[in-house]
User: Fold Protein kinase domain containing protein from Paramecium sonneborni.
Amino acid sequence: MGCCSSQRHTTRKKTYFTTNIRTFYRFGAVLGKGSFGTVKVGYKDGPDGEQVYAIKTINKVRVVDKTQMIQEEFEILRKMDHPNIVRFYEMYEDDMFIYFVMEHCKGGNLLERVLSKGSFDEIKASIVMRKLFSAIAYLHSQGVMHRDLKPENILLSNENDDADIKIIDFGLSKKLKESDKDKKKQLQRKQSQVGTPLYVAPEVVTGVYNQKCDDWAVGCIMYIVLCSEPPFFSEHLKELLQKIQFKPLSFPQEEWKGISQDCKQIVQGLLQKDPEKRMTCSEALNSDWAKKGFRKPLQIKINQKQGNINQSNDCTPVNTSNIKGLKRYAKSKQFKREVLRILINQLNDKQIDKLSQKFKELDKDEDGFITPQELSQIMAKLGFETTKNEIEQLIRNTNPEEQQALQIKYSQFLAATLDLKQYLNKERLWSLFRYFDVQDKKYITKEDIQQALKREGREEMASDKILTDLMMHDGKMTYKDFCQLMHDDMESDQFFEHFEKLHASPEKHRSISKT
Assistant:
């Protein structure tokens, strides 16, 4: 990938991590193949046993003239933070390949689910579509166009009927510039034709389009989910594009019997050929159809039907412990926050789902953030007496990098509401310590922290605030120092007594770097 300008090349090399990925992961079966490489299963030993990932392997020879596109995909992946967008973990590079390490979804894709089980009834479809509306509205609020939405790029977290959805494949995505984000006609100028023909919007055919091309694609997906057929089809590309541009939308009686008029109106709104008149995913999310209360009754129905099969859906409401955890997190040191974020990435689907359900309980408008109003409502309900200013300050302290936004992000909430008594056991602590101490020196240095953040493409986060905690230990943080920092709510005497009781010699623990 040496075709870049020296400035771009330098920026990229600061971001990508060049240590051999096989130091950390074992490769398994191929999950999928694309123009630029493959996606394989990746395995790594963790405190709860073997952890499974999806590793996208990009052949550098095939993308020698697409450096900027790969960089943009990477930047978008690592910054998106939403329950229904695939989680990005790490990135590596060697002489031949670039590797994205991501969340592994076991339930196949949405198209496979529709083909195997048939079209969804309206209640089940509303659950899926609400999540998709929320995720796309979130992307657009962050100035991102996906540009290749289709059922194959929507994965299901597991094989259960109530599985969460995850949007993947940001290879064609586009990040709007700040100057474009403030314009009503965001990025509506001549662009390359992208996407899969069945799902491209009429304006994409002409190459003049904006983020509303995603809304059209969501309309196509909703149509398929409800009747198992695409809204426009032809085996010949030219004829297909003409139908997309000019043929009126129809709802054949046989396929659409039993579907409400409100539901059809959402599909019609999303598949409006004029992008200026087209419904957005944000509007669909706030529509009467989406607000009818399909979400909770189905959750109850699923719990009653599968209560013993999928305990992760037996969601526990937000409680006082969660709010206290949020307050502790807001006061915690920056390095501890980074470790908790890494801990979140080590949890399995069931563990994450319990926390995710609580986030969704608070995120009433489903925009992907917790606002002061949403936090205030639940705190008042739980008996906390707080002022508006106190709540706003709590949010600022929780999200110090974006204090003006007054929002708690999804991953911040997960990290803040973890049950630390449950998860900070000796195996987990040792695993987290070894995440930094890759060379098994038995201590962590400034360079170890910087290298760990670099694996995640977050080297700019190696700030003075993170490193201050390390400097308090003369530049070397031992395992015991590390444990004390993670139990910073304990007094020193209390911690040392706790440490002696809880921890065996760390040398006896399994190394997570072993393959």
